[in-house]
Specification:
Layout (H helix, E strand, L loop, with lengths): L3 E8 L1 H23 L10 H17 L2 E7 L2 E6 L2 E6 L3 E6 L11 E7 L2 E7 L5 E6 L6 E5 L3 H12 L4
Parallel strand pairs: 7-9
Antiparallel strand pairs: 1-2, 2-3, 3-4, 5-8, 6-7, 8-9
Helix pairs in contact: 1-2
Length: 164
């Protein structure tokens, strides 16, 4: 990628596992209903199961990978089609997130508070997180998981002109 200072992809095994279980359960329910017959007196229509299978497959695929890109223009972090971009002009600094991961209530895209500031969080279970401090915006801090926090912070500091 031209102009890339840092790039990382993190595969969320837990998300893939959980979504696979949901899709499998819905598929079994649909097959059961088609072959044996519906359970209960008010069965769900077949289109409902098909729709839910497609929905959870799409969610599972979209949230399977967290991508981090630090370029000459700014920082982009995203899950599939959902991305958050911060230009260098809006970044004042970065640091390691010291807040407990329990504070965010799980993984995925979360909204949270820490040290009296609102945070937008792109989180993967079991990974350290970096906090980007922003000049302006609805969320003064943007937090994301990474397997290499030192490398990400070094690239961000280089991007905003800091050293060390």
């Amino acid at each position: 990628m031209q102009g890339a200072l840092y790039e990382e992809r993190i595969y969320s095994r837990w998300n893939i596992f959980i979504m696979s279980i949901v899709v499998l359960a819905l598929s079994v329910a649909l097959i059961w209903q088609l072959v044996v017959g519906p359970l209960g007196t008010r069965p769900a229509p077949n289109w409902y199961f098909v729709g839910m299978i497609v929905f959870f497959l799409a969610i599972g695929i979209n949230f399977a990978t967290l991508t981090i890109r630090v370029t000459t223009r700014g920082v982009t972090v995203g899950y599939g089609l959902i991305r958050h971009y911060i230009p260098w002009s809006n970044i004042t600094g970065c640091r390691l997130d010291k807040a407990s991961s329990v504070r965010y209530g799980g993984w995925g895209i979360r909204l949270g508070w820490a040290d009296g500031k609102k945070r937008l969080v792109y989180n993967i279970l079991g990974s350290p997180r970096v906090v980007i401090e922003k000049r302006q915006g609805s969320y003064p801090e943007f937090v994301f998981s990474t397997r290499n926090p030192e490398g990400v912070m070094k690239a961000i500091r280089e991007g905003i002109g800091e050293r060390g």
